[in-house]
Design a protein that fits this description.
The complex is a heterodimer. Helix content of chain A is 79%, strand content 0%. Chain A is built from 14 helices and no strands. In chain A, helix 8 runs antiparallel to helix 11 (239-262). Classes of the chains: A mainly alpha, B mainly alpha. Chains A and B meet through helix 1, helix 6, helix 7, helix 11 and helix 12 of A and helix 6, helix 7, helix 10 and helix 13 of B.
């Protein structure tokens, strides 16, 4: 197990290096006139401010020096300072990350409660009407844009019943109920849009397991259908579904950006969007890096737990 | 000429010529995958609307008429009007045109990028493969939307930027699939035979590798169209896509339009419905195409 863990960690190093290059290079692509634009947009015109911004973006150094200075800062937990708010980027991330985590966690629960039972049902009753309905639904959910669902939920209940979703954020520890009342609508929508892929995957995995010899053996010796499913099929079929949580992480964060914007949830997505509109590049690159590394770490955790759940993987 | 001497094959039964082959394929699609064929047909309708949008649109896309602000759907305006009295149907049609332009160009660039990286990585192998694949790993770590938002924040919004960035995004992600196909073809008997008689690498690539990964490329191109349409709409919704006054479906659901939806709920329906239908249609068609052309790719989305 430790050897497996060490191998996985080692394999992460080159990917992390390339990821840091992507963040670095994308920030170096900022054209020079953008700084003028930034200054104009924010009503600052003195020459000193231009130098200040160039220094803050590190543009006054040779490229390789810029990279090493930047990566050195990142490794010591310094992601720079917001250009307009004078707050360290790490502080802003500390305030927003837990909120996005909560949204993601709630959505994951919604996605799994919807997808697992329907996926299993779809596999057991393969090629029946129920299976077709479930599969059509998941195909449909893959095509519906999340922001449209969000817009519909905002507009129609308020036109028909004078009811609108809560848009005021309350911290969880101030008032858990008020917090959940705000988060539940975006969480359900995000969860629904993620459930399509999970449903398809659960169905495929269950079908695979149901074709195995040991299932036939169990059936032959007279194990009841429900026991067969719960004991023999589910346990083996659901292991690969765990990897899905890792695969869904990028999707979840992308969805969080959209739903945080619609429902005014002050998470990382909203932080990123606001930074983009203010051209606050230190914040943008900080969020960019943290999101990328976060997804990598989630995938590592999932891989490790996979090795723990399924001994076959460990010894490959 | 040597080929004819080496293999005196009788005339194949497959219909000759591009048109004949196309008809044979359509017949097979309708017979074996009726749902996929229906999806393809629906997509063609949207494509037709997109191509002829300028002739089909009853009004100009930015033609304002304040006397008919926020009017519910009627005979004169089948999908109603918005807060400036612009005809929603006309804007939807022009939106279809923009969606088609962006998605075909971006999916085309994406497929080309996938081909180049996939062939370099899969055919050359070794260190090139390793370095390229770690780069692809790193790229795919970032969530699509976050990557797009960041890059657009640097290069600025606009159709050319969107097309190139979306093409790059899906091209790099899709290169994995092309690479897998290239590795399989590379290990085949005919490639080894060509190598052993001393054919040049470029010749092998052009005559053996690329034609044999063609089905994969076609499927990749088709499935990417749906993905591009959805992602572009998402970007436009966030105000980072095709800049106004161009009426994209995503933009019609965002910004100032949002506030008037409470007075004219029909404004919220048409763009989203169009997006859902067109993406659903192309997805179903892409699935059918994949099953017919390349069963190996099943489940690799």
């Amino acid at each position: 197990m430790y050897a497996y863990l060490a191998r996985r960690l080692l394999a992460l190093v080159p990917t992390l290096f390339f990821a840091s290059l992507i963040v670095f290079i994308s920030m170096r692509l900022i054209p020079g006139d953008v700084i003028d634009l930034m200054l104009a947009q924010n009503d600052i015109t003195t020459g000193q401010d231009r130098a200040r911004i160039e220094a803050a973006l590190g543009l006054d150094q040779p490229v390789y020096v810029q990279y090493f200075r930047w990566i050195g800062g990142v490794l010591t937990g310094d992601l720079g300072t917001s250009l307009w708010q004078n707050v360290p980027v790490t502080e802003q991330l500390k305030a927003t990350l837990p909120i996005t985590f909560e949204l993601g966690f709630l959505s994951l629960i919604v996605a799994l409660t919807v997808a697992l039972p329907i996926g299993v049902y779809s596999a057991i009753r393969q090629d029946t009407a129920g299976d077709y309905i479930a599969r059509s639904f998941s195909l449909l959910m893959l095509a519906v844009p999340g922001f449209w669902l969000g817009t519909l939920v905002m507009v129609f209940p308020s036109v028909w019943w004078r009811w609108a979703p809560e848009l005021e954020y309350t911290p969880f520890f101030t008032d858990p109920l008020a917090n959940l009342a705000h988060m539940i609508v975006p969480a359900i929508l995000l969860g629904l849009s993620m459930s399509a892929v999970t449903m398809r995957m659960t169905r495929t995995m269950m079908l695979e397991v149901l074709r195995q010899d040991y299932i036939r053996t169990a059936r032959a010796k007279g194990v009841g259908e429900w026991l067969l499913i719960a004991r023999h099929a589910l346990r083996n079929g659901l292991i690969p579904v765990v990897t899905l949580i890792g695969l869904q992480a990028p999707l979840l964060i992308g969805g969080a950006v959209i739903f945080e914007q619609i429902f005014v949830v002050p998470g990382v997505g909203l932080l990123l969007l606001e930074a983009v509109f203010q051209r606050d590049y230190p914040v943008i690159s900080g969020v960019f890096l943290v999101v990328g590394v976060g997804v990598l770490l989630i995938n590592l955790l999932v891989d490790v737990s996979y090795g723990w759940l399924d001994p076959k993987v460990r010894h490959e | 000429m040597t080929e004819a001497v080496l293999s005196p094959v009788p005339q194949p039964l497959v219909p000759q010529g591009a048109v004949g082959r196309l008809f044979a394929f359509v017949r097979r699609l309708v017979r074996e995958k009726p749902l996929g064929a229906a999806g393809g047909a629906i997509f063609l309708v949207f494509l037709f609307c997109g191509i002829f949008a300028d002739f089909l649109a009853p009004y100009g896309m930015n033609e304002t008429n304040l006397e008919v602000r926020l009017e519910a759907p009627s005979l004169a305006h089948p999908l109603g009007t918005d807060h400036l009295g612009r005809d929603v149907l006309s804007r939807i049609l022009i939106g279809a045109k923009l969606s088609m332009i962006v998605s075909f160009l971006a999916a085309g660039i994406g497929t080309l990028v996938s081909l180049v990286i996939g062939v370099l990585s899969g055919y050359l192998g070794g260190k090139t493969d390793m370095i390229l694949q770690r780069g692809v790993d790193a790229w795919m770590t970032f969530p699509d939307l976050v990557l797009l938002i960041v890059i657009i924040s640097v290069v600025g919004p606009g159709i050319p930027q969107i097309v190139i960035v979306l093409g790059l995004l899906y091209g790099i992600a899709g290169s994995r699939i092309v690479r897998g196909a290239v590795v399989t073809v590379k290990e085949s008997m005919y490639t080894h035979a060509a190598q052993s008689i001393g054919a040049r690498t470029l010749h092998i690539l052009a005559r053996h590798i690329v034609p044999n990964v063609m089905p994969v490329l076609i499927v990749l191109f088709t499935t990417r169209i749906g993905a591009v349409i959805l992602t572009e709409a998402g970007l436009s919704f966030l105000g980072l896509g095709v800049p106004p006054p161009e009426p994209t479906w995503g933009a019609m659901l965002s910004g100032t339009g949002r506030t008037y939806m409470y007075l004219g709920p029909w404004l919220a329906l048409a763009p989203g419905l169009c997006l859902t239908i067109v993406v659903y249609a192309i997805n179903v068609y892409g699935d059918a195409l994949r099953d017919l052309l390349d069963p190996r790719m099943r489940g690799s989305r």
